[in-house]
Amino acid sequence: MKKLLSITTLVLSLVLISCKSTSENSLSCNDPGVGTLAESAFSQNFKSYLQANYPDLANSEGWGGGVPGCETASRNPVIFIHGNNDYSQSWQTIRQYFLNNGYTPAELYAIGWGNKGTGENLNNFHKAEWIGKIRRFIEAVKNYTGKNVNIISHSMGVTMTMKAILGGNAYDTYDRSGGATNLGSPISSYIKVFIGIAGGVRGVNLCDATGYGIIYSSSYNCNVNGFKKTGGFITDLISLANSTKIASKVFSILSSHDEIICTKDYKSDYITPTWGGDDLSQYNPSELLCEVSGIHTSRIPQEDQTYTYDQNSFISTFTYNLWKSYHLGNHFALRDETGSTQVNIIINNQ
Questions:
Q1: What is the pTM assigned to this prediction?
Q2: Where are the domains of the chain?
Q3: Which CATH number is 31-347's, of 3.10.310.70, 3.90.105.20, 2.60.40.10, 3.40.50.1820?
């Protein structure tokens, strides 16, 4: 009987060892995945932690956390923050890059924020409620894993997350009317690496559009609590970021061919740039304006390095099919086609 118990104990020990060692090889523990669009797909262990400590986040759109027996994060976790009118599930491709490079589900997290649906990109702004949600999620992942965190953000997620880290006053109205919400002091001390991809950090020139682009320039997204270049959220954000570095290491990934961040006006409707349509031959970089006061708007104050993707091969390889189908291009390719760069930045700066 004692011999049988010894054998049983040995087998169980080997199972546990196998789970821990294979988690180092990314996916031998069952992968909970990212769920479907807008789904709350946190692992059960992480969900239980949120229910006990951050109940307002427990049923939120998002994903992250390991599985029983393989919950412990050995690396500093990576948190992904999506852009305007997007979903946490949009990071699935990049998540796979990290899994392929030895990360486990317990080390990868994402949270959803903002209004979703047709035309909601015009209605989203830097709302205190959503910024606070991102901030609390960062804190939750940090406390759950017991480690400093890395953050990768895209588009409007860049400015939302910068504000979540830097803290201070935020507003729940598009024009910053009414009382302010004090988010608290900066939490940059436990942000190891911050990557901002295609962000409108310094404002968006499209917010000055007077042609067909006025549908955008007159929207909530372009008001003083949106991407208006002066006199509101952006002015305050740049001031805060100049005085407090948002992470130990800060990186931006950008393009001078970004059809969202750099467009000056629209040709006929709010999804077709002046140089766009379905024909890549119409592409004319001279009709784009990425700089605000002489600096590319995706550049982050006190950043350590900028990765610029402007070469023609990047445009022709990664842009055309998206462009033809959705009138989208480098803005989303900068996120989805730079996975190896993102992984390398994180791995090399821990």
A1: 0.86
A2: 31-347
A3: 3.40.50.1820
